[in-house]
């Protein structure tokens, strides 16, 4: 399926992870607790009653993991920094041992010629800040800017890019809306206010990093999807429009247009956020890139019970419909609605019920999934969308948040009892695919 696909010679091919999901070493070398450390202390919050104390032990095995990346031949690695590792309480003194770890990781990546793409915040707020109100407190946005400035000062010339946030929609709606994620709050009004403070913190961090004049490209990573009406009824079409407004436009409009979408504001009603004068001027900072994470579409049905998506291509182990053409539709729609910087697909992948048989993991379904989504990505590029790179989620199996270790997204299998890494069939396929793209690059 991908034999005929040829991306531009300078297209970036990468893999992605996040700190809490892989690092482990939860108290090592002065690291402070995060909200996810706290959330996991209640086993009822995690489906398999597990935690991130050890995870993939990447903190101690990072050289092995970088070696795996080098064996895949990827151009780039997207990862996040654990804020509480470098600043244990989220304010005050910096933890030099924490920064030393990330410096060693960058050394290892540089030795292998792998570009480093850093995300500052992938959901693991220092518990010290949560104790003072967390993202519901406006002050946390200013503490985040302090953190961003320090990271840009230290590492801004060693990183290819820095993203402020990963998926602020999840932080707000899953962390504060339905308690699925840390810190485990169920309050719709708080969720909306948190979303505003996350956007404010993004703008403040962008300003703080720009002042350091780093070589790294600066941007944000948003999880996005189209919303398709289940039928042509007015009710279903209205629901689809509202979903687009309160999920995609809610974060895109402030960043690119300096306002919230009216449809979503009306829907939030009394839960609409408190916005100070000048907030949108702060939020609307120029971006060097936009990261887009795509996994599924939304299917809007007003019926009771609601109609479900047809799932013609199957579902992932998360129960998510496999809908690759949604990536094309999403990118083309965004490109028509906004004046965009270059886009990177910063996450795309699937959970599968992988198992080791005779020392191998044959995840054919994942290979097909990636092939289908790369074809969809090529279709979007052919329609004029400026996409510069693709990061496969994930490099390796890891702690999948409230699902614990039961869901495997990796192209490298992790035996959590022994920490053995076993490249799956998808890893070998991706290695060969990237190698073929590099051949085309050299021939260009």
UniProtKB/TrEMBL annotation:
<dbReference type="GO" id="GO:0008422">
    <property type="term" value="F:beta-glucosidase activity"/>
</dbReference>
<dbReference type="InterPro" id="IPR018120">
    <property type="entry name" value="Glyco_hydro_1_AS"/>
</dbReference>
<dbReference type="InterPro" id="IPR017853">
    <property type="entry name" value="GH"/>
</dbReference>
<keyword id="KW-0119">Carbohydrate metabolism</keyword>
<protein>
    <recommendedName>
        <fullName>Beta-glucosidase</fullName>
        <ecNumber>3.2.1.21</ecNumber>
    </recommendedName>
</protein>
<dbReference type="InterPro" id="IPR017736">
    <property type="entry name" value="Glyco_hydro_1_beta-glucosidase"/>
</dbReference>
<comment type="similarity">
    <text>Belongs to the glycosyl hydrolase 1 family.</text>
</comment>
<dbReference type="InterPro" id="IPR033132">
    <property type="entry name" value="GH_1_N_CS"/>
</dbReference>
<keyword id="KW-0378">Hydrolase</keyword>
<keyword id="KW-0136">Cellulose degradation</keyword>
<feature type="active site" description="Nucleophile">
    <location>
        <position position="347"/>
    </location>
</feature>
<keyword id="KW-0326">Glycosidase</keyword>
<dbReference type="InterPro" id="IPR001360">
    <property type="entry name" value="Glyco_hydro_1"/>
</dbReference>
<dbReference type="Pfam" id="PF00232">
    <property type="entry name" value="Glyco_hydro_1"/>
</dbReference>
<keyword id="KW-0624">Polysaccharide degradation</keyword>
């Amino acid at each position: 399926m991908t034999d005929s696909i040829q991306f531009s010679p300078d297209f970036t091919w990468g893999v992605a992870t996040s700190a809490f999901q892989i690092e482990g070493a939860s108290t090592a070398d002065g690291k402070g607790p995060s909200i996810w450390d706290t959330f996991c202390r209640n086993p009822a919050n995690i489906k398999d009653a597990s935690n991130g104390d050890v995870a993939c032990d990447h903190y101690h095995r990072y050289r092995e993991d970088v070696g795996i990346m080098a064996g895949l031949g990827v151009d780039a690695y997207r990862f996040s920094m654990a804020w509480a590792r470098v600043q244990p309480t989220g304010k005050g003194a910096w933890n030099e041992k924490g920064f030393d770890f990330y410096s060693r990781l960058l050394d290892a990546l540089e030795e292998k010629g792998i570009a480093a793409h850093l995300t500052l915040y992938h959901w693991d707020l220092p518990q010290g800040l949560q104790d003072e109100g967390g993202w519901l407190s406006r002050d946390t946005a200013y503490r985040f800017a302090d953190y961003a400035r320090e990271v840009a000062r230290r590492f801004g010339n060693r990183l290819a890019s820095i993203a402020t946030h990963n998926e602020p929609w999840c932080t707000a709606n899953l962390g504060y809306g339905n308690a699925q994620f840390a810190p485990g709050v169920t309050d719709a009004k708080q969720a909306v206010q948190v979303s505003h403070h996350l956007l404010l913190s993004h703008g403040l961090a962008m300003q703080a990093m720009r002042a350091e004049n780093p070589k790294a490209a600066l941007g944000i990573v948003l999880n996005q999807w189209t919303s398709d009406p289940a039928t042509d009824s007015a009710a279903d079409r209205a629901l689809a429009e509202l979903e687009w407004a309160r999920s995609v436009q809610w974060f895109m409009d402030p960043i690119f247009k300096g306002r919230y979408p009216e449809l979503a504001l009306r829907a939030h009603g009394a839960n609409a956020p408190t916005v100070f004068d000048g907030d949108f001027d702060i939020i609307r900072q120029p971006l060097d890139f936009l990261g887009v994470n795509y996994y599924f579409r939304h299917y809007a049905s007003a019926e009771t019970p609601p109609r479900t998506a047809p799932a013609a291509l199957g579902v992932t182990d998360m129960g998510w419909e496999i809908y690759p053409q949604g990536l094309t539709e999403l990118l083309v729609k965004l490109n028509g609605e906004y004046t965009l910087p270059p886009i990177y697909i910063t996450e795309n992948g699937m959970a599968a019920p992988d198992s080791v048989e005779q020392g191998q993991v044959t995840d054919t379904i994942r290979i097909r999934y990636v092939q289908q989504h790369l074809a969809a990505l090529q279709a979007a590029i052919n329609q004029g969308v400026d996409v510069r790179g693709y990061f496969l989620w994930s490099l390796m199996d890891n702690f999948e948040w409230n699902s614990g270790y039961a869901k495997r997204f990796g192209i490298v299998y992790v035996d959590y009892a022994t920490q053995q890494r076993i490249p799956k069939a998808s890893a070998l396929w991706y290695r060969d695919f990237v190698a073929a793209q590099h051949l085309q690059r050299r021939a260009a």
